[in-house]
Write a structure and sequence with these properties.
metal-binding, histidine biosynthesis, 6 strands, 32% strand, 120 residues, PRib_AMP_CycHydrolase_sf, mainly beta, hydrolase, EC 3.5.4.19, two-stranded antiparallel ribbon, single chain
Length: 120
Amino acid sequence: MTLPSEIAERLSLSENGLVAAIAQEAGTGEVLMLAWMDAEALDRTLRTGRATYWSRSRGEYWVKGETSGHVQMVRDVRLDCDGDALLLTVDQTGPACHTGTHSCFDASRALPLTTPDDQE
């Protein structure tokens, strides 16, 4: 299958043919992970309702949860105003992060923020 032209025309793919895809949990709004899609991965996602990404390291498509069971069922897909990022609202089963945590952005990964007020 091929991504419908009315969608493909709105995408602004990188020089590698990819677009950032952010997965957000439907029930809580929590940001779960960032992955990459090309037009084919987006088409597969839209047709199946299962989050399908492009693995840059393996050079192949992967359906989230296909081997781990940590499935992402997609409720909604939105394209940002520039066409270079996608927001997937998903129902997440199990951890979203490959490290085994629920989110790839959990509190243990918070970076210290120094504001001008902190320096006084």
